[in-house]
Amino acid sequence: MTDFKKEFWDRLEDVRAGLMEVDGRLFPMSPNVSDDHDGVIWFLTANGTDAADAAKAGKAVRFGICDTGSGLHGYVNGTAAVSDNKEKLDEIWNFVAASWYEEGKDDPDLVLIKFTPKDGEIWLSPENGAMFLFETIKANITDSKPDLGGRANLTF
Amino acid sequence: MTDFKKEFWDRLEDVRAGLMEVDGRLFPMSPNVSDDHDGVIWFLTANGTDAADAAKAGKAVRFGICDTGSGLHGYVNGTAAVSDNKEKLDEIWNFVAASWYEEGKDDPDLVLIKFTPKDGEIWLSPENGAMFLFETIKANITDSKPDLGGRANLTF
Which B-chain residues 6-45 have CB contacts (< 8 A) with chain A? Predict the structure, then answer.
C-alpha cells in the first residue's frame, strides 16, 4: 500500500517549481523542504511580491505541482505566513538565493514564507517521466490497465 | 527580444504534465501540441472524467504548467470542447494512449478535448532545470541580477 503522504514529502524534495494560487491568481514558486520533515513547505521571496503579500496577510494559499521528473502532481491547500526562523533560513538558503539577495540572509528584501498545508490531492506517476494519462486513474477504469501510479486525498 | 508566444508553443511540446483547473478544482492532464501549431492544446481523456465533463459543457478552463525540464511555467485561460477531429487524433495518438484504450482510437470511452487558450501569463526559466526564484522577476528587482528568464502576459 502506497504511503501517499510520505511519497508527497519525499518527492517534493526534488520539485524545483510549482504554482502558488492566491485569490485566484497563479504564479510559479520554488518549494523547499526541511530535512526534519516539519510539515511545512518553505519559500523564499522578496518584499512586494504577491507571495510576500499573501503571507503577510495570512491568506489561504493553494500550491499546485505538476512535476514530471519526480512524478508528483496535484495540490495542497493551506495558509501562508511570514517566518523569522533563522535556522530554517540557514537550512534552505542556497546559491540561487545568494545570487539574488545582495545582502545575503540579512537582505531587507528577503521574505521567508512558511506554508502549512492542511489537505490536498495528489497523483503519483512513474519517476522516470514517462507519459501518463492521469484522468484514467480517476475514472476508475484502471482495473485491467498498467499499474503506473495512484491518486489520493491527503490530510496533514 | 524573447517571443514569448513562440516559446510557449515550442516548450509546451516537451511538457508531459500540467494542471487543469475547472470550477476551482485542479487535476493533472497531459497536453499535446499539433505539428502545425494550430493554437490548440489537445488532451486525451476518458468518458466520465472531470475533464471530459468540462469539455462536454464547454466550460471555462485554466491550464497551469510548472515544468522544470522545459523551463515553462504559468497558465493559460480558455474554453474546452469535445472534438471528433480524426486527423488530430491520429497525430497525437501514442503508445501510452494505446495501452489504456483497449479498442484503440475507436474506444467509446476515449474523448478528445480541444482546448483553445485565449490569454495567459508565463514565466520562462533556463531549460536545464536550474533552480530559480521566479518572484524576483515579477518584483522588478532584476536590473542588476542574473538574466535567467522572463515573464509575459499572452494573448492568443
Answer: 15-19, 26-30, 44-45
